[in-house]
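<amino_acid_chain>
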Amino acid sequence: MHSREMREHFKKIFPKCSAYEIENLVSAIRSNKYWNVHTEKKNAFYAVALTQAKIPFKDGLKAKSTAPKLVTVSAKAARFCRCGRILVVKERGEYFVSDTVVEWPVFTRLIRQDQNVTYKFLTKVLQFANFNLLRLT
């Protein structure tokens, strides 16, 4: 998909996002960008999903993403995995595991929050909750 087509596609999916936010998402996809959840802890990242999670692999389904390693999405979260959504991935040896999918508008708000609270919430609290997709309503 070309950048122009991606911009049009994401404007339809995220109508409340500004053109600047959409451009940031397209740029992140094009440049294989990923972010640390916490600057001091290197075991959890945000990565942009590039495909749906459909191929069975280890304890879940494999999805392409901008993460530096292979990502396995849990079966519960796999149904929410789509291109342009953000996967919260945790390192597990030679691959990453994701139990949480976040939409772009939620991600832009999460990265502005206190990183200690966000890290604890995404890695500890959501692990025991039954939330697989975080979205603004």
Summary: The first strand starts at residue 34 and ends at 36. The helical segments are 3-13, 19-30, 75-78, 104-110, 115-128. Strands lie at 34-36, 44-48, 55-57, 60-63, 71-73, 86-92, 95-102, 133-134. The chain has one domain: 33-134.
